[in-house]
Amino acid sequence: MPNDASLATYIDHTLLKPDASREQVLTLCREAVEYSFKSVCVNPLWVSTVRTVVKDTGVLTCSVIGFPLGATPTEVKVFEARGAVADGADEIDMVIDIAAARAGEKDALVQDIRAVAEAVHEQDAVLKVIIETVLLTDDQKILACEAAVEAGADFVKTSTGFNGGGATVEDVALMRRTVGPDIGVKASGGVRSLADARAMIEAGATRIGASSGVAIVSGEQGTAEY
Question: Out of 90, 93, 97, 154, which one is annotated catalytic?
């Protein structure tokens, strides 16, 4: 368990609202640098802006792909991922084919994830795979996590934050048990306080996605906005 001083390095400081303004993104970047968050996570439109601001600060640039539905052809996800990395993204958070997970189609999941993983890894970036736990049964969550591991993902991630629900301690623990000790687990969606973050990390999370990063490290209660 990290101490309060190092907890900031677990946080992807996040702003994914479709109406996010340039000034809001710049504020997000300034906060990330000030508090030494792990990354700034934004929609692809803002990747180059974030990269310019946080370059050489130690803060990474993260972008989402196939977001928030995951219902995008694999080749489009690959194109989007390559573009985001070319714009400066160090990390990519992709949404899986949720329908395939619900249908138990593991091979389809592996193929979708692997194609993006290969595109991301060939540019030395990291891939996190969003399984959208709120829409899946436990068996489907396990299937999706197994597919992510088989496909070569670096992390599995709970949620987009756009379909209700969000990260739970139970889901994080289930994901950690499924992927084992060598794959990252990102708890995202509804993590709004220091107590929330500590509980997720204790359950096995190695990264926290939150729009309330400042509140978390300040010991305050943040909002649920993503």
Answer: 93
Report the predicted TM-score, pTM, of the whole model to 2 decimal places.
0.95
Q: Which CATH architecture has domain 7-217?
A: Alpha-Beta Barrel (3.20)
CA 94 – CA 172 distance, rounded (Å) = 18
* Burial per residue of 164-199, b for 16 or more beta-carbon CB atoms within 10 angstroms, e otherwise: ebbbbeebbbbbbebbeeebbbbbbbbbbbbebbbb
C-alpha angle 34-16-172 in degrees, rounded to nearest 5: 85
Question: Could you confirm whether 186 is annotated as catalytic?
Answer: yes
How do residues 159-195 score in pLDDT, each as one tens digit? 999 998 899 999 999 999 999 999 999 999 999 999 9
Q: Domain limits of the chain? A: 7-217
Using CA atoms, how far residue 145 sits from 60, 159, 171, 195, in Å, is 24, 13, 11, 26
Q: Is residue 157 annotated as part of the catalytic site, yes or no?
A: yes
Q: Which residue out of 112, 157, 171, 196 is catalytically annotated?
A: 157
Instruction: Verify whether residue 106 is a known catalytic residue.
Output: no
